[in-house]
Amino acid sequence: MKNKSLVSINDFTKEECLRIIELAGEFEKNPVQDILKGKVVATLFFEPSTRTRLSFESAVNKLGGRIIGFSETASTSVSKGESLKDTIKTVANYSDLIVMRHPIEGSARYASEVSMVPVVNAGDGANQHPTQTLLDLFSIKKTQGTLENLNICMVGDLKYGRTVHSLLIAMSDFNATFNFISPKTLQMPSEYKKLLDEKGLKYYEHEEIHDTFKHADIVYVTRVQKERFSDPIDYEKVKNAFIVKNKMLEGTKPNLKVMHPLPRVNEIDTDVDDNEKAYYFQQAKNGVYTRQAIVASILGLI
Amino acid sequence: MKEIKELKVNAIKNGTVIDHIPAKSLFKVISILNLDKIDTHVTFGTNLESKRLGLKSIIKISDKFFENDEINKIALIAPEAKLNIIKDYNVVEKKIVEVPDNIVGIVKCVNPKCVTNHEKITTKFKVVSKQHVSLKCHYCEKITEQENIEIY
Ligand SMILES: [Zn+2]
User: Fold this and answer.
1) Cβ contact, residue pair A106, B120, below 8 Å
2) Is A68 near chain B, with CB under 8 Å?
3) Mean pLDDT of A15-25
4) Cβ within 8 Å, pair B116-A106
5) Do domains A9-128+287-298 and A130-284 have the same CATH topology?
């Protein structure tokens, strides 16, 4: 993986994903090291995403690396109309690795092509956010002991949610069974269902949570956003139907974990937080170890 | 009928005749094949009647023979185009165009949020289906379907 940019989860083979997960486990045991001493990582956030940026910066800092960059573009040359190419080429002179978040889809791929140093995509619009997917895989492996043969419930906005799409693609290599629970207008797009058909994997679609969690190993929740509905009345009708509540977890499997990419608004009731099946805050913590593994392996330090 | 057609566009001694181009795509074909920049004789006829295409165009290019990669670029806008390779006034070979595996340039990505629609970047697509053409953008990974294909 040395010097290889991480733009899309599709760029990493199953073996490479497993390698990152394994390394993330090592960093969890030993998170403070100085293997990035003398290295400079640039975090270029063309749109704000505090959580993701802090997670990367924490990962780099704990390994003794230094951070340069910006968290929004207002005070930079980007706001003066500098092209993405020029920004990337310039910053590549100052750093060993670029972590980039950008609202335009495909911008990370393009950056990786013009940059002299590897680029890690920290989200390019609705397209890809591969470090999220890898930390999700690490969290699943860690809590379930395996990635194979799991039953995964995906709840909420399955149409626009890039995290569930990438997770689906990644988990389709591990013989997963899927339950998709969403409003009719926000169902899993057919291209992903086609992928599962091609791989011979089972999936079921539901319009309410009801007893879909019963056999689940993972419940992965995403937010149903009001702005996805052209008719506000349609939103009002469904908005409470996809909120995960503590009592819905009664009678579920002991190994079940509830995951969420965060930030959460109200789609997981706060009464779930104290349930040992709630895993979203640990999931965020796992993000730091996963990003340590990603940065260190791309820089060829492990 | 054949003779009348030949009168409209002069015969060439050596070169390539591209027939069955939809009339509306003529100038796009010229531009994709860079025929506006070559220095040999190029003649064309357009708005010729065609049973299949309604109105078609024909281009004759003297002393020019295309590589398959080069000619297949027009498959997206002239899928029924037929090539006659002419040597010494005789047709020595006939070819049809075929949708290539990859498309570089030519097509605009359908996704308004795609980086190729925001920066000066040559588009790149993987052809994921040739029957009903669908193109996967190398950058934003979105699919552009045949009915949405827009040529630069
Ligand atoms: Zn695109």
Assistant:
1) no
2) no
3) 96
4) yes
5) yes
Contact across the interface for B115 and A191, Cβ inside 8 Å: no
Residue A206 pairs with which residues in a beta bridge? A181
Report the C-alpha gap between A208 and A238 in whole angstroms: 9
Please tell me if residue B116 touches chain A, with a CB cutoff of 8 Å: yes
Distance CA B76, CA B70 (A): 13
Does residue B151 or residue A170 have the better pLDDT? Answer: A170
Q: Left, alpha or beta for B88 (phi > 0: left; psi -120 to 50: alpha)?
A: left
Amino acid letter for position A16 = E
Task: Provide the residue ranges of all domains of chain A, joining segments of one domain with +.
Answer: 9-128+287-298, 130-284
- B122: contact with A, CB 8 A cutoff: no
Mean pLDDT, chain A, integer: 95
Residue from A119, A138, A147 nearest A8 by CA: A119
A27-49 pLDDT, tens per residue? 999 999 999 999 999 999 999 99
Contact residues on chain A for B109, CB-CB shorter than 8 A:
106
User: If you measure CA to CA, which chain B residue comes closest to A86?
Assistant: B119
Could you say which of B114, B121, B143 has the minimum Cβ distance to residue A105?
Answer: B114
How many angstroms does the Cα of residue A116 sit away from the middle of ligand 1? 23
Tell me which H or E stretch contains A166: helix A162-171
Contact check, Cβ <8 Å, B115/A103: no
Strands of chain A (E only): list them. Answer: 40-45, 66-70, 97-102, 119-124, 151-155, 177-181, 203-206, 218-221, 257-259
- Inter-chain touch B139–A128, beta carbons under 8 Å: no
Best B113, B123, B138 member to test A by mutation, with max A CBs in 10 Å, is B113
Mean residue pLDDT across chain B: 90
Query: Which tens digits make up the pLDDT trace of A52-79?
Result: 999 999 999 999 999 999 999 988 888 8
- Work out the minimum CA distance from B120 to partner chain A, whole angstroms: 9
Helices (H), chain B: 2-8, 26-32, 68-71
Q: Which domains does chain B have, with CATH numbers?
A: 15-96 (3.30.70.140), 102-151 (2.30.30.20)
User: Average pLDDT for residues B108-122, to the nearest whole number?
Assistant: 96
CATH 3.40.50.300 fits A130-284, yes or no: no
Q: Which of the following CATH numbers is that of domain A9-128+287-298: 3.40.47.10, 2.40.50.140, 3.40.50.1370, 1.20.210.10?
A: 3.40.50.1370
